[in-house]
């Protein structure tokens, strides 16, 4: 499990302990202490031992991922949509969407026209999104 390696390192340094001394006090192998500090991973048993040795609560050692909010931009793509006896002129939707996909756009929603115009030509709208890269 992921743990807060920076807290382990700073708490050990506050006590002026070497990694070897922390290993002795916690009852862990030196290599385990080194891995915890460098990779931020530990078993539950190791986490408990480190917390006890450094006078920390187990929850203080929990690693928290920084919260990020993904931002998107949106656009619409109008495609002719024919139904009934006039549907032969409808474009290849896969081709149109794959062309947009090459630029990073993905289909979010497809809005189809209501079929009340007695088979007349209408437009369908593809709502596309892509992640903003900052």
From TrEMBL:
UniProt-recorded name of the protein: HTH cro/C1-type domain-containing protein
Species: Pseudoalteromonas luteoviolacea CPMOR-1
Domain of life of the organism encoding this protein: Bacteria
PROSITE patterns for this protein: HTH_CROC1
CDD domains, A to Z: HTH_XRE
Domain HTH cro/C1-type: 8-61
Entries under SMART domains matching the protein: HTH_XRE
One Pfam match: HTH_3
Molecular-function annotations in GO: DNA binding
């Amino acid at each position: 499990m992921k743990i807060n390696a920076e807290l382990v390192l700073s708490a050990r340094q506050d006590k002026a302990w070497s990694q070897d001394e922390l290993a002795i006090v916690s009852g862990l192998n030196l290599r385990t202490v080194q891995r915890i500090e460098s990779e931020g991973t530990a078993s539950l048993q190791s986490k408990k031992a480190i917390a006890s040795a450094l006078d920390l609560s187990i929850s203080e050692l929990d690693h928290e991922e920084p919260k990020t909010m993904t931002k998107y931009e949106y656009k619409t793509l109008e495609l002719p949509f024919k139904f009934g006896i006039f549907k032969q002129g409808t474009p290849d939707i896969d081709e149109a969407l794959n062309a947009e996909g090459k630029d990073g756009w993905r289909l979010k929603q497809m809005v189809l026209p209501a079929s009340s115009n007695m088979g007349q030509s209408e437009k369908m709208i593809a709502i596309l999104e892509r992640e903003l890269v900052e």
